[in-house]
C-alpha cells in the first residue's frame, strides 16, 4: 500500500497537527456547487496521517480515527460556525468561524511576498493550476508554498509547505451526492464549552 508509517490524527488536545489541519480546512472552503468525497493524506517528514473529506457546496467535513478515538470537524459557512464532534464521547464544541473566509478558490495569506502561476498539472485525475507562493519569515527568511488548484472542484487538491516538509493531498475523489446529515450535529450529543486541554482562545 503505502511505504510510510500510517496513523490517524488524534482528537483535539492530543496533537498540534489537529490545529494545522483545521487551519488548512478553513483556508480551502470551496465555491458553491462543489460536492464530493475524498481521502486526505497529510505527510510531515516520515509521518503520514490519513483522513476523509466531504464537501457539499461550501460545507466541509473532515474526520480522523486513531486508537484514542474519532474526531470530526464540520465547517458551516451558512451558519457562520464550525463544530468539532467527538462521537466516542457524544460531545461537540462550537466555535464562530473566523471573520475572513475565502470567497474564491484559493486564499493566499495576506503577508504573502509573492504569488505566481507556474503551470498546470494533472493531479489525481484533475487538471490543476500550480501556484508558487512565498511568505515572509521561515527558517531561511522566506517560507515557500506550492498549491495545485482544481478549478472544477473549486479548491486546492494538493498543497506543499516546503519549509516544514509537509504535504496535504486529496486522493480517490468521488463526485457523488453527499448526505446532508454529515454536516449536522448527531442527535443527543452534548455541547462542551472547551476542548480537553485546549482553551477556546486557540480556536478563534
Shape: globular
Estimate the mean pLDDT confidence: 76
CATH superfamily: Lipoprotein localisation LolA/LolB/LppX
In quaternary terms, these chains amount to single chain
Tally of separate helices: 1
* Rg for CA atoms: 17 Å
| Beta-strand content bin | over 45%
- Could you name the CATH class? Mainly Beta
Q: Provide the domain count.
A: 1
CATH overall fold name: outer membrane lipoprotein receptor (LolB), chain A
Largest sheet: 13 strands, mixed
**Helicity range of the residues?**
under 10%
Distance N to C terminus: 38 Å
Structural class of the secondary structure composition?
Answer: mainly beta
Based on DSSP secondary structure assignment, what is the total number of beta strands?
Answer: 13
The CATH architecture category equals Clam
H and E order: EHEEEEEEEEEEEE
Instruction: List low-confidence stretches.
Output: 1-16, 102-106, 195-204
Give me the secondary-structure topology.
Elements: E1 5-8, H1 17-26, E2 35-44, E3 47-56, E4 59-66, E5 69-76, E6 81-86, E7 91-96, E8 112-123, E9 126-136, E10 142-150, E11 155-161, E12 166-174, E13 190-191
Amino acid at each position: 500500500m503505502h511505504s510510510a508509517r500510517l496513523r490517524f490524527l488524534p482528537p483535539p488536545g492530543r496533537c498540534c497537527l489537529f490545529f494545522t489541519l483545521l487551519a488548512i480546512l478553513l483556508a480551502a472552503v470551496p465555491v458553491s456547487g462543489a460536492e464530493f468525497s475524498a481521502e486526505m493524506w497529510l505527510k510531515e517528514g516520515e509521518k503520514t496521517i490519513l483522513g476523509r473529506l466531504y464537501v457539499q457546496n461550501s460545507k466541509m467535513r473532515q474526520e480522523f480515527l486513531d486508537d484514542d478515538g474519532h474526531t470530526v470537524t464540520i465547517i458551516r459557512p451558512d451558519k457562520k460556525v464550525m463544530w468539532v464532534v467527538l462521537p466516542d464521547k457524544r460531545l461537540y464544541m462550537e466555535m464562530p468561524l473566523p471573520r475572513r473566509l475565502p470567497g474564491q478558490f484559493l486564499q493566499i495569506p495576506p503577508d504573502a511576498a509573492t504569488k505566481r502561476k507556474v503551470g498546470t498539472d494533472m493531479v489525481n485525475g484533475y487538471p490543476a493550476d500550480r501556484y508558487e507562493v512565498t511568505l515572509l519569515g521561515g527558517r531561511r527568511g522566506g517560507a515557500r508554498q506550492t498549491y495545485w488548484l482544481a478549478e472544477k472542484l473549486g479548491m486546492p487538491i494538493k498543497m506543499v509547505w516546503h519549509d516544514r516538509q509537509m504535504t496535504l493531498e486529496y486522493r480517490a475523489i468521488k463526485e457523488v451526492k453527499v448526505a446532508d446529515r454529515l454536516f449536522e450535529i448527531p442527535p443527543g450529543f452534548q455541547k462542551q464549552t472547551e476542548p480537553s486541554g485546549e482553551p477556546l482562545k486557540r480556536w478563534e
